[in-house]
């Protein structure tokens, strides 16, 4: 018996939400959520930002699953360790297509990409291999993708910032120091706040 693996390209969709602060949009901000989150709820962390010129765009990971067992709350993921190279490739393609669609309606003066937790690695890979021309990349409580070469960092954005809470439960104190040192070695700005693994609104306003 001979067993072989194949693949075919199939039609796919990418779900996303937008949140607009005012009518005159000058700043386009993409926000990629973390593991197990849905944009319907994640986007609420960005509500009531006291800025009047931003369009927030929240794409959702294509892999949805039950957070516990086989029923109940659902979350989404950008990828797993299984066939990760294909998910990395498809994420970049789908996010590029979303960017093309968004630009049909606006002409922003600047573009920021925020990646929270798992979304930080996906955002970095998109900026490294996709077509978006980014002014500011914000990696929020995320590990920098080890598969991106150091010399690729310059292709991500004109400015980069790493944000981390002092009490982030996913990064013990010793790990925080290592993580911060890694980002600093790449010339990336560091922003800290008193808090856990979450979006801190005041810090968000400051780094935007």
Detailed description of the structure:
This protein has helices at 39-42, 84-103, 118-129, 173-185, 201-207; strands at residues 16-21, 27-32, 54-59, 63-66, 74-77, 110-116, 136-140, 159-165, 189-193. A 7-stranded mixed beta sheet has the order 1-3-2-6-7-8-9. It has a two-stranded antiparallel ribbon with strand order 4-5. With 208 residues, it is of the alpha/beta class.
Spans where pLDDT lies below 50 across 5 or more residues? none
Shape: globular
Radius of gyration: 17 Å
- What is the highest CATH level, the class? Alpha Beta
CATH topology, which one? Answer: Rossmann fold
Whole-number mean pLDDT: 95
Strand content: 15-25%
Order of helices and strands: EEHEEEHEHEEHEH
Largest sheet: 7 strands, mixed
Query: Biggest sheet: strands side by side, in what order?
Result: 1-3-2-6-7-8-9
Number of helices: 5
Helix content: 25-40%
Short characterization:
By secondary structure, the protein is an alpha/beta fold. It has helices spanning about 40, 85-105, 120-130, 175-185, 200-205; strands at about 15-20, 25-30, 55-60, 65, 75, 110-115, 135-140, 160-165, 190-195.
Pick out its properties:
two-stranded antiparallel ribbon, Rossmann fold, 208 residues, globular, alpha/beta
In terms of topology, how is this protein built?
Layout: E1 16-21, E2 27-32, H1 39-42, E3 54-59, E4 63-66, E5 74-77, H2 84-103, E6 110-116, H3 118-129, E7 136-140, E8 159-165, H4 173-185, E9 189-193, H5 201-207
Parallel strand pairs: 2-3, 2-6, 6-7, 7-8, 8-9
Antiparallel strand pairs: 1-3, 4-5
């Amino acid at each position: 018996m001979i067993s072989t693996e194949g693949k075919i390209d199939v039609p796919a969709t990418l779900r996303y939400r937008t949140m607009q602060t005012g009518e005159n949009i000058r700043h386009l901000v993409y926000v990629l959520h973390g593991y197990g989150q849905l944009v319907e709820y994640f986007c609420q962390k960005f509500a009531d930002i006291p800025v009047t010129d931003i369009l927030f765009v929240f794409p959702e990971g294509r892999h949805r699953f039950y957070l516990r067992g086989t029923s109940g709350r659902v979350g989404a993921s950008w990828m797993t360790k299984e066939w990760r190279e294909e998910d990395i490739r498809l994420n970049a393609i789908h996010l590029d297509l979303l960017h093309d669609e968004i630009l049909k309606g606006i002409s922003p003066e600047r573009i920021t990409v925020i990646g929270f937790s798992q979304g930080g690695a996906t955002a970095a890979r998109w900026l490294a291999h996709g077509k978006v021309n980014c002014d500011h990349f914000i990696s929020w409580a995320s590990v920098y993708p080890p598969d991106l070469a150091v010399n690729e960092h310059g292709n991500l954005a004109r400015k980069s910032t790493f944000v981390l809470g002092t009490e982030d439960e996913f990064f013990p104190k010793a790990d925080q120091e290592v993580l911060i040192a890694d980002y600093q070695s790449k010339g990336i700005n560091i922003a800290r706040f008193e808090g856990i693994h979450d979006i801190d609104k005041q810090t968000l306003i400051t780094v935007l």
